[in-house]
């Protein structure tokens, strides 16, 4: 399974210019780290909207979702406002964390015809791209970690731009991680 503890001391800015260290994020419960392709991507917007529908269930389990994107704090702020997410939005200026987590940078996977159908479907549903941020060829992924960052219990890596982690599976993985390693219980 994927290791996430190597990122424990990494520090990122949120969309309000506050620094957060990874180990503080998983101190109180499980976390789903959602690495976005781009803040302005229609697929990233859909990912946040899908997870918004599970927000109360995730919080009730003592877990949280953290979005991570390539860009500036103001771009992260715009993403949070546009998607109306109540989750934390972190920003990074380089792809070090993406590489650390084994996320692909793949040109054919981002501009190829394999994304066209999914993109047109989102457009018909009213989900539009609004800004290009970061690297246009970077793909995203999701990693669910237990409290304390002990282990990654569920992961998803995109192979093309239209691949986003299923919100239901992410929410279920967070609930299962909360049950597996309750906060305050030493294993």
TrEMBL record:
Pfam families: AhpC-TSA_2 (PF13911). It comes from Mycobacteroides franklinii. InterPro entries: PXL2A/B/C. This is AhpC/TSA family protein.
């Amino acid at each position: 399974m994927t290791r996430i503890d190597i990122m424990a001391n990494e520090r990122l800015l949120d969309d309000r210019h506050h620094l957060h260290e990874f180990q503080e994020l998983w101190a109180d419960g499980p976390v789903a780290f959602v690495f976005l392709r781009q803040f302005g991507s229609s697929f990233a917007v859909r990912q946040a909207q899908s997870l918004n529908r599970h927000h109360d269930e995730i919080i009730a389990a003592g877990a949280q979702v953290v979005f991570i994107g390539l860009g500036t704090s103001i771009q992260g702020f715009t993403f949070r406002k546009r998607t109306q997410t109540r989750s934390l939005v972190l920003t990074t200026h380089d792809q070090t964390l993406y590489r650390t987590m084994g996320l692909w940078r793949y040109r054919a996977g981002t501009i190829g015809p394999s994304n066209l159908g999914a993109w047109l479907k989102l457009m018909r549903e009213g989900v539009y791209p609004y800004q290009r941020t970061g690297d246009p060829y970077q793909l995203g992924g999701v990693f669910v970690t237990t409290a304390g960052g002990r282990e990654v219990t569920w992961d998803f890596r995109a192979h093309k731009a239209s691949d986003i982690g299923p919100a239901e599976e992410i929410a279920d993985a967070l609930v299962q991680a909360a049950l597996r390693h309750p906060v305050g219980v030493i294993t």
